[in-house]
Amino acid sequence: MISGERNQMMDTRTGFSDDIISGSSGVDSPLFPSDISSLNRLSETLESILLEPSNSFADAKIILSSGREVAVHRCILSGRSPFFKNKFSGEITGKGKNHNVKLSMKELGGDYEIGFESLVSVLKYLYSGKIKGLPTDVCVCVDEECSHEACRPAVDFMVEVMYAYHTFQIPDMAALWQSRLVYVLDKTSVDDILVILSVANTCGKSCKDLFTKCVDILVKSNVDFVTLERALPEQIVKQIIDLRFELGLDKPGSSSFPDKHIKRVHRALDSDDVELVTMLLREGHTSLDGSCALHYAVAYADAKTTTELLDLALADVNHRNSRGFTVLHIAAMRKEPSIIVSLLTKGARPVDRTPDGRKALQISKRLTRAVDYYKSTEEGKDCDKGRLCIEILEQAERRNPLLGEASASLAMAGDDLRVAMEIAQVDGTSEFTLESVYSQNLANAQRKVDLNDAPFLIKEEHLIVDAEAHQWIDTPEERELKKQKYLQVQETLNKAFNEDKEDLDKSYAISSSSSSTSGVVNPHTAPFTFQK
């Protein structure tokens, strides 16, 4: 790519790059300074209409999966996009009808989710005709050492925008964003390239160049067959494997391909059937480490299944797969706090690095948007899962404990952990630290806590939650509901504590009375012995 083309592609000030600057005859005509000024004012006016919908007579809404809404104008979108023209056909001129059309983003964009910022970026172009660069507030990760050219937040934004332009039938803009992605592919994590390739495949011919380069990178990479199979359609996996065979980079029957015994273990994990996994291991054809079963469970199975697999104590928690990744590296990629804590309490080493030099903490940081991380630290904001993962791993690195076998109290999560984590979210803080988890586990080594028998013993170690329980809700109604739930749980715990304390006092009083009548001295009240 020549520098002039790159500068034009990345210029955030380019305006009216399409037919809006052409004459009505279809022949380009020179623009005088006054014309450029007028077009810029028109562009700014149209963009302000999008940004201030309450004052601009918006007659439609696009609703995202998160529940956020974007007010739009059917006449503008229909004039700029064949896709919207077809969607709104017959509704624009209808008198007094359908003046508040609502379209879900899933209906517009299909199965691939387009985020709020990506959608607004595309709409800004459709309204103003201006081509803009990456918005720094949503394309920056938490890692301060990252250049932010190709970290996951930037990649996600570019992929979503490219897909939106493809969906809304704006081929020139889809091609522009395809070029931006092609430019950063060499700096992109190979796991992120799997995401890019999947979307490029969906976009078809409009992203042919991007598709070809992604396939070429994956063919020469060390990504294993299981990862390819889980992330990509079958025909693309076959294409990559066939190319590897042709180039002599792999061959049938190599360690890159799981045998039938390993596949059985993986299928059992897909069904969350740890008992079946144990039975398969007894056959002796493979082991948890040999099948990388723990890696597979951490990447794809339910968090509870991972905990049960860890409790078998048959796997090396620091074992590396064919790519040189430990289980903790995989857990950081999944961004699941409860799994990370379970691994750390079983002895996973946070200081271990991937072959390209990344620790689990850096992986987690580069997957997390800075805007989400810092927003969740503000008072009244729900704690982002990415931020939880980062804080847990930071504390683990500072402490770097050699715990050996930790106590099983963390594995007791269940519904009580969900309630506890919701309590932590009420005040917008994460009310546990890994430090407290470690210290409690050391103090309670080999001792299990029954939450039914000792409700007042629920402490910081229970403030973990699985993926399904982590619902980030911002509405005041839901926040108030969670606060009431917190107060009810707190009241229940206090009541249980007081009842236990009363029972203990009664037992002590009876014991003291019995001791005085029988002549036996209570050692708690008499530190030395009286002689008759």
TrEMBL record:
<dbReference type="GO" id="GO:2000022">
    <property type="term" value="P:regulation of jasmonic acid mediated signaling pathway"/>
</dbReference>
<dbReference type="GO" id="GO:2000031">
    <property type="term" value="P:regulation of salicylic acid mediated signaling pathway"/>
</dbReference>
<keyword id="KW-0963">Cytoplasm</keyword>
<dbReference type="InterPro" id="IPR024228">
    <property type="entry name" value="NPR_central_dom"/>
</dbReference>
<dbReference type="GO" id="GO:0016604">
    <property type="term" value="C:nuclear body"/>
</dbReference>
<dbReference type="InterPro" id="IPR044292">
    <property type="entry name" value="NPR"/>
</dbReference>
<feature type="region of interest" description="Disordered">
    <location>
        <begin position="504"/>
        <end position="532"/>
    </location>
</feature>
<feature type="domain" description="BTB">
    <location>
        <begin position="58"/>
        <end position="131"/>
    </location>
</feature>
<dbReference type="GO" id="GO:0009611">
    <property type="term" value="P:response to wounding"/>
</dbReference>
<dbReference type="Pfam" id="PF00651">
    <property type="entry name" value="BTB"/>
</dbReference>
<keyword id="KW-0862">Zinc</keyword>
<dbReference type="Pfam" id="PF11900">
    <property type="entry name" value="DUF3420"/>
</dbReference>
<dbReference type="InterPro" id="IPR021094">
    <property type="entry name" value="NPR1/NIM1-like_C"/>
</dbReference>
<dbReference type="GO" id="GO:0001666">
    <property type="term" value="P:response to hypoxia"/>
</dbReference>
<comment type="similarity">
    <text>Belongs to the plant 'ANKYRIN-BTB/POZ' family. 'NPR1-like' subfamily.</text>
</comment>
<dbReference type="Pfam" id="PF12313">
    <property type="entry name" value="NPR1_like_C"/>
</dbReference>
<dbReference type="GO" id="GO:0045893">
    <property type="term" value="P:positive regulation of DNA-templated transcription"/>
</dbReference>
<keyword id="KW-0833">Ubl conjugation pathway</keyword>
<comment type="pathway">
    <text>Protein modification; protein ubiquitination.</text>
</comment>
<feature type="domain" description="C2HC NPR-type">
    <location>
        <begin position="138"/>
        <end position="152"/>
    </location>
</feature>
<dbReference type="InterPro" id="IPR057250">
    <property type="entry name" value="Znf_C2HC_NPR-type"/>
</dbReference>
<dbReference type="InterPro" id="IPR036770">
    <property type="entry name" value="Ankyrin_rpt-contain_sf"/>
</dbReference>
<dbReference type="InterPro" id="IPR011333">
    <property type="entry name" value="SKP1/BTB/POZ_sf"/>
</dbReference>
<dbReference type="GO" id="GO:0009408">
    <property type="term" value="P:response to heat"/>
</dbReference>
<dbReference type="InterPro" id="IPR000210">
    <property type="entry name" value="BTB/POZ_dom"/>
</dbReference>
<dbReference type="GO" id="GO:0106167">
    <property type="term" value="P:extracellular ATP signaling"/>
</dbReference>
<keyword id="KW-0539">Nucleus</keyword>
<keyword id="KW-0677">Repeat</keyword>
<dbReference type="GO" id="GO:1900424">
    <property type="term" value="P:regulation of defense response to bacterium"/>
</dbReference>
<keyword id="KW-0479">Metal-binding</keyword>
<dbReference type="GO" id="GO:0009625">
    <property type="term" value="P:response to insect"/>
</dbReference>
<dbReference type="GO" id="GO:0009682">
    <property type="term" value="P:induced systemic resistance"/>
</dbReference>
<dbReference type="GO" id="GO:0008270">
    <property type="term" value="F:zinc ion binding"/>
</dbReference>
<keyword id="KW-0863">Zinc-finger</keyword>
<dbReference type="GO" id="GO:1901149">
    <property type="term" value="F:salicylic acid binding"/>
</dbReference>
<keyword id="KW-0040">ANK repeat</keyword>
<feature type="repeat" description="ANK">
    <location>
        <begin position="323"/>
        <end position="348"/>
    </location>
</feature>
<dbReference type="GO" id="GO:0090575">
    <property type="term" value="C:RNA polymerase II transcription regulator complex"/>
</dbReference>
<dbReference type="GO" id="GO:0010112">
    <property type="term" value="P:regulation of systemic acquired resistance"/>
</dbReference>
<dbReference type="GO" id="GO:0003712">
    <property type="term" value="F:transcription coregulator activity"/>
</dbReference>
<dbReference type="GO" id="GO:0050832">
    <property type="term" value="P:defense response to fungus"/>
</dbReference>
<dbReference type="InterPro" id="IPR002110">
    <property type="entry name" value="Ankyrin_rpt"/>
</dbReference>
